[in-house]
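Hi R.,

Quick one: here's the AMIN-like domain-containing protein sequence you asked about.
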Amino acid sequence: MTPFVRAAGAFLACGAALISCGTAPPGATSAGSATSSAPTGGSPTATPVPSPTGTAPLQVERDGIEPATVTGVRIGRHPAYDRVVVDLDGDVPGYTVRWVRELEQDGSGRPIDLNGGHALHLRLTPADAHTEDGVPTWTGTAVPPSGTVTAIAKTGDFEGVVGIALLTGAVKGFEVRELTGPPRLVVDVAH
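And here's the predicted structure, written out as tokens:
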């Protein structure tokens, strides 16, 4: 097989994975939006990507897997949404994603200041945000100004559960996708 054929095959496989995410991931137990916002035809640059609209909580359970390690959380601004990517070392763990008005730091119970707004709270399990030696693998994320997501806070890294809060001024539609190569969880939050 020539390098060109291998590259073309990899490109088509990646494109198909992004486009075919029209249903909730395996194990999803809610009507929450866990779909792809990629257009299904035409040029990706010719068709604007719609804003996510679902606000219902989403839960995906994954039992019997090794804990994933959160290696980073990053954000990008797009015309219709803010995209937050949780980078992982290991398989994508189970997760819940839901809107909240109050949050507490896992373990201590100390309230987390949401600056009078809301938070889209992600809880990943089984997951850690530290090495076996206790060294943090993710300590925080700088958020650029002028977007829906105003801050990203770690709400916990305790007993196999990692909490991540995406702070916003109001409840907005969101979509969640699981990607591989490398493993990551992608959350789009509408403007």
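Residues 3-38+49-190 form a domain with the Immunoglobulin-like fold (CATH 2.60.40.3500).

Cheers,
M.
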